[in-house]
Design a protein that fits this description.
By secondary structure, this protein is α+β, with helices and mostly antiparallel strands. Helix content is about 40%, strand content about 25%. It has helices at about 10-20, 20-35, 45-60, 120-135; strands at about 65-70, 75-80, 85-90, 95-105, 110-120. The protein has a five-stranded antiparallel sheet.
Length: about 140
């Protein structure tokens, strides 16, 4: 897919700071500065921008994310909701996401994947927020 921006990662980090997402900016800066290991790709600025855009719009409604970067350069956010539900989101350079929603099964106590899918950010929110709000 075509890239959606022509930004650099430091510019995206600055956008996060200007949006009031200082902790997110600090984490992205830290991950961006880490040395690459074993042929890993550098952080994709479009993936980072997708995360920052998403959090700029929705951070008030979501728990504080754990942010990581994968070997392919994509940024991930892990959202842990009260009530033992969890969403891991991979922010793709296209602006779409790959997400995995899981929660603790009341009968067994183990985590169960409830949905895993590539989708738009809006679709993901529509799918996870009712479940997550129920578990909050």
């Amino acid at each position: 897919m075509a890239t959606i921006t022509a930004y650099t990662v430091p510019e995206v980090i600055d956008m996060a700071r200007r949006a009031g997402l200082g902790e997110v900016a600090d984490r992205l800066d830290y991950l961006h500065r880490l040395p690459l290991e074993n042929g890993a790709d550098p952080m994709d600025p479009d993936s980072a921008r997708s995360l920052v855009d998403f959090l700029t719009r929705h951070h008030q409604d979501l728990p504080k994310p754990g942010i990581t970067a994968s070997a392919d350069g994509h940024v991930h956010a892990d959202l842990e909701f009260a009530g033992d539900s969890d969403v891991d989101i991979e922010f793709l350079p296209s602006g779409d996401v790959w997400f995995i929603y899981s929660d603790r099964d009341q009968d067994t106590g183990s985590y169960k994947i409830r949905e895993t899918k590539m989708s738009t950010q809006d679709y993901m929110l529509k799918r996870i927020m009712p479940r997550a709000n129920h578990a909050m």
